[in-house]
Structure formats: C-alpha cells, structure tokens
Amino acid sequence: MSRIPVTVLGATGVVGQKFVRRLVDHPLFEIRHLTASDRNVGKRYAEGCAWHVTEGEPYLGLGDRILQPSTPDAAFSPVVFSALDTAPAREIEPLFAQAGALVFSNAAAFRMDSDVPLLVPEVNAAHLDLVRFQRANRGWSGGIVTNPNCTVTVLTMALAPLQAAFGIEAIHMTSMQAVSGAGYPGVSSLDILGSVIPFIRNEEAKVEEEAPKLLGTFAGACIDPARVGVSAHCNRVPVIEGHTESVSVRLKGDPSPEAVAEVMRAWNPLAGLGLPSAPAVPIHVHDAEDRPQVRKDVGRDGGMSVHVGRIRRCALFGIKFTVLGSNTERGAAGCSVLNAELAIMRDLLAREI
Amino acid sequence: MSRIPVTVLGATGVVGQKFVRRLVDHPLFEIRHLTASDRNVGKRYAEGCAWHVTEGEPYLGLGDRILQPSTPDAAFSPVVFSALDTAPAREIEPLFAQAGALVFSNAAAFRMDSDVPLLVPEVNAAHLDLVRFQRANRGWSGGIVTNPNCTVTVLTMALAPLQAAFGIEAIHMTSMQAVSGAGYPGVSSLDILGSVIPFIRNEEAKVEEEAPKLLGTFAGACIDPARVGVSAHCNRVPVIEGHTESVSVRLKGDPSPEAVAEVMRAWNPLAGLGLPSAPAVPIHVHDAEDRPQVRKDVGRDGGMSVHVGRIRRCALFGIKFTVLGSNTERGAAGCSVLNAELAIMRDLLAREI
Amino acid sequence: MSRIPVTVLGATGVVGQKFVRRLVDHPLFEIRHLTASDRNVGKRYAEGCAWHVTEGEPYLGLGDRILQPSTPDAAFSPVVFSALDTAPAREIEPLFAQAGALVFSNAAAFRMDSDVPLLVPEVNAAHLDLVRFQRANRGWSGGIVTNPNCTVTVLTMALAPLQAAFGIEAIHMTSMQAVSGAGYPGVSSLDILGSVIPFIRNEEAKVEEEAPKLLGTFAGACIDPARVGVSAHCNRVPVIEGHTESVSVRLKGDPSPEAVAEVMRAWNPLAGLGLPSAPAVPIHVHDAEDRPQVRKDVGRDGGMSVHVGRIRRCALFGIKFTVLGSNTERGAAGCSVLNAELAIMRDLLAREI
Amino acid sequence: MSRIPVTVLGATGVVGQKFVRRLVDHPLFEIRHLTASDRNVGKRYAEGCAWHVTEGEPYLGLGDRILQPSTPDAAFSPVVFSALDTAPAREIEPLFAQAGALVFSNAAAFRMDSDVPLLVPEVNAAHLDLVRFQRANRGWSGGIVTNPNCTVTVLTMALAPLQAAFGIEAIHMTSMQAVSGAGYPGVSSLDILGSVIPFIRNEEAKVEEEAPKLLGTFAGACIDPARVGVSAHCNRVPVIEGHTESVSVRLKGDPSPEAVAEVMRAWNPLAGLGLPSAPAVPIHVHDAEDRPQVRKDVGRDGGMSVHVGRIRRCALFGIKFTVLGSNTERGAAGCSVLNAELAIMRDLLAREI
C-alpha cells in the first residue's frame, strides 16, 4: 500500500524538526512538502534551520528539500502536520482544512473551539468524532485536529485512568518544564543556567482550561468538560527535554496509592489497535522512591510513554505523585502523529483524496 | 563591650562554613572553637575541609585554627552553633546545654520536642520563651534553640504575615531545591545535571510537621500548633543555592492578591530591635511577572530576606505565589545566628557566664 | 553459530553498565557472568547498582542475575570484559588471563606494559599481535588487551589518519571532559554546576604517555612509540557524556586544512571487515563553523564515531581543530568490545575454548 | 572635591549595567547620562532593560533615569564609558572624542588603530600616552582609550609579569568562556545546557592580534607589538560569568614553575597609586591542585583580580598553567573604569573641562 503524502507546516523549528524525524520513516506517511516562513521560503531545508534533532544524521536526508510557502496552493497534502505558532496557525490552518486537508496541529489557535477535537488518543479517542460536526459547521472537506499543550498532555496521560476508574474532583499541578518547550533560541542561557524561572507566559491558563476539555465527555456536537477544579504553577528549569510535574489530586472514593498505581499500570486503551506510534506501555509506574528522573527516563519508548512515580497520600487532596513526559515528543509532534494514525484508522480522511 | 565567645560544632561542612563566615566579623560574637568529627580533629581548619564559601579569601583567616572534638570539655563556649547532622546532634547538643551553653542548632534532632523552640525570629519570636521551661524540665543551665528545615523557614517567612493578618487554613507547597541543601559531596552531578530529582529524603515530612509548629502559638509550657493542613512535594533541581517554592494557600476571608501583597510588604516584626543579622526588609514583594528568580535574587541582603512574586488567584486555594529564599543562609546558618542575637537581646544566656 | 560466553568484571559501575548494554544483544557474545565487589556479591544485579544507562528498560532484562565474585573460579568465560578500577584490575585481570581468558580491559593497570596491546582497532590493529608475545612472556594461555584512556582514544582516532598520511611531530591538546568519566557518584554537583574544574587526577600523564604508544609501530616483541611531543591540559566541564578536545598539531610537510579534512574523511581502516561495533564512518568531519557540539553530536552511531570540526591554520603548530567523542562508549566499553571483535576475527582466542 | 560627571553609552546591556554598578558609588565619578539605542530612548532605565546585575537592589536607584540618545548634544560628559557594540561604536565614539570627551570603550572598533591605546593598567600603563598622539592626529580635544577583549585581558594579566621578567616567545591558549560574554539574550539555552560550543565568532582573531599589542612597547607615536606567536582556541561552556583559560607559554631562559609562580606573586605594578578599582593583589596564585575554579574564585576582589593555578612543566612550551578571570568585570567594565582612573591620575582629561 502506498503511503499518504503529508506536509509539515513550519518545519524549521524545534517541533517542526521533531515532526520530520517522526515522519521520515513512517509506515503510513511520506513527507511531500516542508514549509517555512517567508524569509526561508525557497531555501534548502539545511540552509533554513539550525538543526536540533540529535538522533540520526543532520536533516535526515532531507537537507536538499526546498522550503515551500505555507499555502495550500504550494504545499497541499491530504494530511498536514502543523508546527506553526498560534498567530500564523489561526490564518493558515483553516485554508488547508478548507482545501480538503486533515490538519493535525500542535498550535494553540483552535484548541478550545467547541467543534475542534483536543486529542490525546489514549485519553479521549471518542472526541475525534467532533471533526464530522466541524466539517458540517464550517463547510470544510478537511478539518483540524489539535493536540494539547505539552504540559497538559503529560498531565492528562496520568489522570485519564483515574478519571475513568474513580472520577477526579480537583487537580493541583506544579510543573518544572524544559527549555525546549520555548523553541529556539527561546530561553536565554543567562536566565536559566543554575536557576528557575517561575513563569511561562499563558501556560497556567492553558493547563487550567485544556485539562477539563480533555477529561470531558463527547456530548454529540461538543465536549462536556469535566467538572474538575484545576490549579497550575508553571516553572522553567534548566532541563533540555522533558517536563516533570508534581501533582496532587482529589479522587472520588478516596482510593489508596496502591489502587491508583494498579489502575495506572493496567491502563492501555490503544492496545491491539496497531497504531505505529502508540507506546506498548503508556504509563510506566516506577517503584524506586526517587524516580522518575527526566534525564534517565524521558527517552524511553521514543518519548511516547509517560512516567509516574512517588504515588503517595496527600494530606490535602488524598493522592499525590510525580509525572514526567517528553514535551516535544509525547507533548507535541508525537501526539499529533498518533492523532493522525487514529484518524486514518477511523477513516476520517476527506473522500476526495 | 567584649564579644561573646562561641563554638561552631561541625565547622567543616557546607553549613558549618556558613556559620564561620557569619561569625568571623560579628559585632556580638567571637569564634573561640571550631569542632569536627574524629577523623579531622587535630588538623588545621584549612586541612580539614574543602572550602565552599565564595565570599572573601578561603578560610577567612582561620585556616590555621586547630579543629577540636565536639565535647564541652574541649570546646565549651557560652554560645554554641551546631551544624551537626541529626544523629550526632542528638548525642552532642545536650552535653553542651547541660554544661551551660545555649545551643543554636540547625539539626533536626530536637526540633519537634515539645519544650524546644523551633524559631525564626520574624515568625515566632515569642516561642523563644520555651527555653525557660526546657531548663526546668531538663535541669539544664543552658538550652537548645533550633531553626527549622531550610524549606520550611523560607515558606513560613512568607506565610507568617498571612497567618497574622488573615489566618491560614491550608498550605500546598512544591519546592525546587538547591543542591547545597544536601551538603558536600551531596548530590552527584550524574544525577542532577540537566535533570530534576523528585525526591529528598524526609524533606516532605519535615515541611508538613514543622510548619504548623512555627505558625502555632505559645501556650505556656508548649506550642499549640496551627490548625492548618499542609502538603508538600519536594524536588531537587540543578541550582547551587536557593530554594524556589510554588505555594497555594487558603486564607480566612478569602483576601485578594493585592491585600496579600500589601500585608507582606508591611510586615517587619523585627524593625527597630537592632538585631545585626535581621534584614531591613524581610520579604521583597516583586512586581515583575517572572520574578523571583534564584540566580538573580537570592543573594540580596546576604541571603537573609525572602522574595515573593506572582501573587495571584488560585482556583483551588484562593491565593497562590512563588517564594524564594537562601537555603544555607536564611534557611540555616543565618537563621541560627539571628536566633542567637534575639536570645542575647532577651537576656537568655545562662547566668554563670 | 553459538555465541561466545563472556564475563563482565565490575558490572555495576558506569562503564560496567555500558558493557552490559553493548553485550546484551551482541551477535558474537553472550553474557554469562556479571561480577561485583565484595559488598554486592550475591545480590541481584538490580539491587547491586544505581542504573545509569538511559536506553532501553532499566537493567535490560538482567535485573535478576546474581552478582558473582571477580574470580576465575566463580566467573570464568573465554572472553572477559573488565570495567574494574586500576588497583583491583592489577590483581584480578592476570588471574583470568592465566586461566585462559582473553581479557579486554578498560583499566589503566597494564596499558603501558611493553607486551600488552593498547588498542583502538582503527588506529593500531597491528598491535594486537603483541598478545602472542605476552603469552610467551607470561606463560598465559589467555591474555590482556587494553583500550586507552577515554581522552586518548578520542584524540588518536582523529590523529591516526594524519600520522599515516603526513607524520605527526607535536600534539597539544586541551580537553573539556564529561562528568561520566569520573564514575558514580564521581563529581559532586557542588563542584561542577556552572563551573569548570581545571584538573583531573593522572589524566594529563595518561594522555602524554598513551598517545605515543598508540601512534607507534609494532616492532616485533614490542611497540616503538611515535616520536612525538605531547602536551595536555585536562579540564572537567558540566557535561554528562562526551569529551571535547581542542587540538593543535604539527604535521610533516605542513599540509593545508583542506588536505587534513580530506585525509580524515577518506580514512576507514576497518571498512569491509564486518566487525559489528565498527562505525560505518569513523570520523565525521563537520563543515559547520560551530560544530561538533557535544549535546548534538555525541550520540551518533551509538557513540562509536568521533566528530572533527573547525580544521584551520594554527599560527604555532600549522593545524588546529576540535574533536569530540563519547567517553563511555568509544572511549571505554565500546572500544573494548570492538577490540574483542577484532581479536575473534584474528583468531586469538585461547585454543582450549 | 566634586566628582567628574560621566556618561554610559549603551547602559542597558550586560556590560552597560556593569558600568552603572561600578560607577553608582564611585569616589571620582558621578553618573550624569545613561544612553540607549533608539527604541529605548525616552524610556525610564527600569523600563529599558532586563536587569542582570545581582548585587544590590535592581537598577541601583537609577530606575527612573530617562534614557538619552547616544549623541554628544544629548549626553555629553567629560568622561564617557562605552558599552556599545562594534558597529555603533565606530560611529558614535569619535563624536564624543571630538566634542572633548575622553571615551573609555569596551568596543572592538578602535582597539587595533595605531594611535589608540589598548589598555590594561597593570599590563601596559605606558601605552596611555598614545592619547596625546591621537589628539594631534585626529584634531580631537578628547580621545578614545580602549580595553581589550575579555579573554585577552585575563590572559595578559597573567602574562605581563612573565613578559617583564623573562620575555615571552610563544603563547597557546584554549579558553572555556562564560555565556555572559555574549550579552543578552546571547547564547540560547538549547545550545549550551550540558554542552560545549567550540566556536565564538571573531574571538580567536582578537586574542591573536590584541595580545601582541598589549604586551608590546610604547615606541613614540605607536606601539611596537611583542614579537610573540599566539594561537587561540575559544570555546563556550555553560558558565554564567568567568573565563577559564588553559595556557601554554614558551619563555626565554626556560624558567621553572616555581620561578614563574614567584614572579606572578610579586607582580603589582599599580601598588601605591591609589586607583580605587585596582585590586590589592592583581594575580592570586593558587597552590591547590584543582584551582582556580570559576564558581568558587571568580567573585573575589569584585572580579578585578585574576587567578592562576596549576603552574607546571609543559613538554612542548616549557610552562603551562590555568588562568581565570571575570569577563564582565576585569574583562570589560571594570577594566574601562580602571583605565579612566589611571587617565585622571595622569591628568589626561581635556583642558576645557
């Protein structure tokens, strides 16, 4: 079977490069177009970006590809992955959706729109059906499917089995986030070497609004958000890749730490579906008292699993634990690619492809 | 007036060295003895330790002092500062107290004893009077006064004005702690470079038990602990000096962030007492949205003030903010020295000195 | 064909774990014994060490293996890999050699012995024949083959093609070395975070004495060392894995930087031999003006290749460049395993196996 | 005596802020004007820059000063300190010199001009007299005095006593430089966390051309550069402040390491002159085998002294050692201020002031 041609919008940034790495040898997809912003259009890929992927050779054999403008005329494919920033995403992604492409977007622009799926396949695969309403609403033959903010993705991977098994009433999360989340050049070394920055613009608001949508239920034409209080503190720490999150959570029925661990270990909603990017074990539950640790754990399973440890009693919420996940893989490019794999399996590509 | 001779117990470690730096030019105190564990007794101070203080010349002119054993016979002074570890502190500090010394201890050994003050002068100066009951209880002419765990000290500095002005109902704190808190050699670089360790042994329990005692009220012969729920997540980050804490707090009457900031700015319970180590401003309240930052802020006022920023609404607790303070200065040696200054002012030295 | 059983001496340390990772799925070798020092003998592998390998699952499926004592009686295999420290290596490795094992050692104990090969297969494969003289000299049926100090290995990988093509007269090298080279716990975070330590015990002497032996010629029963002046400055920097070296070199005939680059690119002495651990390209010559960079480049080819960049004129030596390589892979475990592969191919195993 | 009014050109950057810190309480100088580039002119100082100085309160009491344009009309003072980048410095500094100001510049623009002093007072105070020729040549009543590149300043502080006592024939230097040398935002954290960048644009050329001028002799109307070969490797490491340099040097007469150390310890050419910014000891010679270390040593003497350690035999050059110094203090702002103090003492201010 021939592979589906895909476009990567904004292929030159940190997340764009992660898309390229995930797609260059993908069994279902084949990279047709790489796009860039105006000042890099027409350049070779190797000229248009500082390369940040450390696996494989630089540019992964695509260094000579010519960067295209981010328009459907120049760079249409039936499946599009978007690593655009929020503002250009708001303009550009609908053009591709209207032209018939299914856009899998890492941008924040449409995440909270009522007819746009905010999707992590293990967490809320049912939400993908919102695309059918989106098409009706907007008159598009394609559509837009978003993945959440990286911090939220990691968080909800740990919370989804608890929501399913017990029900969640309140979530308190303090993050220690990697600098790769800010892109390149992103965070200045003068600000972060040997330090902590207790602020990431818009990040706490994203956690607090996206988590209830993700944990919510598909209610016909929209999502009924989970009725759960969420409070987030977001911090930047001198780590390259991987967000560590200290989570306190109030669950219905006040289950024990052992019950929580058991539910997390047993959770594997994508088992047997054969999605190429789905990790065999979505949550690794660590027994060692000092794990997970970002440098030692974040690279397992290509960054697609998350790591939970220190599940214990919380005097205020009942349960607390640490969760760790890759922000650019599971929290960005990898999630979008997995979303696309789910959409292909669900036969959501526009008919005319 | 002549200065009071003092002994530093465990002068070779990270905190012991900070004691030495604070005492070497102190207007009230004069270093008489430096003690060490058996393998270093009899050595010159410069031979007995790797020097970690970065201000001034190495060993601060005391490199030729001979290290003494940690016994009252060898190293008595009327005022003693203890940088011992918990286990030796439990044996050694009472010997000095019985011999008539007032021991200001950074160790955890006696902090939670009902007749031992756990003291931060700005927070709970009234607790110092417990020493009189301790002397009666134990038949000591001296006594033991402890300072809290470093994380708790920084936390309660920010909370004390809120307890006084509003009353606190619940405290949730996630720390990002510096490696100097683990002493030397302490944390291996292989574990912490570019990483986060979500575990510090016993640290969360200390926060959860010491904070209510500190925020409690002096009730005659003991402390009535504050009736406040406390939950802590303690993390190690690649920072040399300075603990950053993300705090959520539930206050009576649900005051606004502006009211909280105003109370913190106005708070200065030691103003006018003339204690040499008291900072002019105990809490610096930052307006910049991305402060406090440990590398940029922790060194102000010799590390004796704390820094609060990002005071804002919390969906779960009402108020959240970030507090930063020096773990080895305000959180250890500096707090003990300030405790001693307060005790001198309160005329608590044993009579026979 | 069945795989050759192997023993890893000192399997619990940083380098020992790297041996295990390289051997666990090796086409020629099969792990039979893992040994440890006395305090860990009898424990399960997972209990006997803090795990540092970040690829794959912790302990790689060998967590239940029982750690053996480092004696031929308890842990003989025909091929032995030694990650012992120098002092125990001096005692233990000869016992295995005498018992008939071919010991591939990362330790410094025997590197400079006149009848012991100091081997990097791409650099001086001919030196391996010293083993035959060693057997005669010492009456061993096995033997000892050492790999060099990690810094020297990386350095000589870059220099070997220049020695072959031009001849080297003088080498000046300044290293910036990773903390993993010091083992675990090794370098304290208090010493290295945000800092540089301009000293690594014995390291400069090793560079200055091992490099001439490696670049020397096999002269019958011994190695005629290269007549080349060597001076080294060795520094520790806050990097986890990978040594960066600033090299100035005086070559016969004063070739141009372009000629040097061409010789390095063309160099591939193991091409076609089919050694499983040999990298397809031993030296990657970078054109980008700011490469190689340790975080971005050191992981290529499983750490078995080295990276050279910034080849340019030197006002004092003629040529200068930067070379980067993995200290625990190419500079330690990987080199020993490659040495063993070469020895198997050369049919050097003791007859009685 | 009233203080001399001064202007800081480019007061908003990392070095500009260091000028402000050094001048805000200076006994000879008083800050009159702070200038900025166009987009910040007219703003308050506190609005016009991200503050990087960690000593004292933010903005040091000058937060309300209005930023001026960098023109003599708007911001003339008899003494001017320039933290401008090279390109604007080339345009702006001559305007101030022509208007009668003595400009002390940290910029590279005029350093190698034959009639411009490249000055480190301890190293080559005699070169300051070039200003008189400069005035004659250019018809200026003021003048321009430059300080060297930070790496060169630290290097020549260590070499000047050796040039005076023995004579230097060749210098080989490999630097490990702090990120503050690149300004703000400067080096991206994604490039430098846990890594080394073996390239700093133009840095090696500056070292190789500035060092001979600094170590040269004043020959009437110009400087006769030292006849010394220089080769530099410049690397960036994850350090905030302080350049560490591994130096090999060939000296006439091949003195011993002990003789070199003795000459360095005895060297103090500014002793007794009473220059406020001159350190009491310009070179601290360390005996400990693992010093100097940037985090532990760079802050002494306000960053105005340099630290030398590990003086030992070099197989190729005769002597090798490590030198460490502050790049933004001794290597930039502090050196310029010391230059100005020397010029005042030498009565070099334009008459009309």
Structural overview:
4 copies of one chain form a homotetramer. In chain A, strands 9-6-10-13-12-11 form a 6-stranded mixed beta sheet. Chain A has helices spanning 14-23, 45-48, 72-75, 86-98, 121-124, 130-138, 150-165, 189-192, 203-214, 257-266, 294-297, 329-345; strands spanning 4-9, 29-34, 79-82, 102-105, 143-146, 168-177, 217-218, 223-224, 229-236, 243-251, 283-285, 306-314, 318-325. The longest helix of chain A has 17 residues, at 329-345. In chain A, helix 11 (294-297) links the parallel strand 11 (283-285) and strand 12. With 353 residues, chain A is of the alpha/beta class. Chain A has 2 domains: 4-148 and 333-345, Rossmann fold (3-Layer(aba) Sandwich), CATH 3.40.50.720; 150-326, Dihydrodipicolinate Reductase, domain 2. Chains in contact: A-B, A-C, A-D, B-C, B-D, C-D. The A-D interface holds A 14, 52, 179-180, 184-194, 238-240 and D 14, 52, 179-180, 184-194, 238-240.
Characteristic terms for this protein:
homotetramer; 353 residues; alpha/beta; Rossmann fold; Dihydrodipicolinate Reductase, domain 2; 2 domains; 6-stranded mixed beta sheet; 5-stranded parallel beta sheet; 12 helices; 13 strands; 30% helix
Describe the secondary-structure layout.
Four copies of one chain form a homotetramer.
Chain A: E1 4-9, H1 14-23, E2 29-34, H2 45-48, H3 72-75, E3 79-82, H4 86-98, E4 102-105, H5 121-124, H6 130-138, E5 143-146, H7 150-165, E6 168-177, H8 189-192, H9 203-214, E7 217-218, E8 223-224, E9 229-236, E10 243-251, H10 257-266, E11 283-285, H11 294-297, E12 306-314, E13 318-325, H12 329-345
